[in-house]
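Amino acid chain:
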Amino acid sequence: MAEAEITKAMIVNWALVELGLAPNFSIDDETPLGARVEIFWPRTMARAFGLHDWIFCRQTFLLTRQEAKPINGWTFGFDLPGGIIGPPLKLTSDPGCEVPLRDFAIEGKTVFTNEQAAYARCKVYLEPADWPPQFTDAFAVLLAAYLAVPLTQDSELAANKEAAAIGTPSQGGAGGMFGRLIAQDRAASPVGSPAVSDALSGGRFTTDWHGRY
C-alpha cells in the first residue's frame, strides 16, 4: 500500500496529537482552530527554515540582468528570483558556484555588480510533500509548541515541545530534533565551500535585503 502524500493538514494533525488533541484539522477549516493554524503555520515556517541553510531546499539560479543601467555606480543590476527564503547563500560568477562575487551590493531584490553574469544559490520554499521525513517530524513538534498555549493554555507543555524541537534557550535553536538534523546536514556538505559572507573578506559588500518567508 502506497504511503499518503504529506500535506499541511497532515502535519497540523501530527502537531495536534503531540498536544493530546484530536487530529481533526482540514485544509479548509474555518473554525477557531483553522484561524490559529493560519497564524502559527507561517511563524513555524520562518523559524524552521531560518535555523539552517538546509541542503534540501537549495537551488542555483542564473540571475536575469536588467536592461537599465544602474544609477548607483555599478555596471549591471540583476533580479533576484521570486519565492526564495532569505538572502542568497552564495553569489558567484559561475554556475558551479565556485567563483564568488567579491564586489557587489544587494538593494531590495536587486544584485548590483560589475560582472557580466551572476548566479545565486538560494533557499527556496518547497511543499511539505518534498520535505525530508525527519524535517517534517521536527516541524510538527515545533508547530505543536506554538499551538500549545492557544489550544491547551499549558505553557509548560509549550516549553517542553519547543525544547524537544530546537533545544533549550541556551542552545540557541541548535538542540533537540532540529539540532541533530543540522549536524547531519553540515556533515553532508563539502568543507571549505564559502558562503556569501565568508567569501568577501576584504571585499565590498552592502545589502538592504529583507527576507521573505
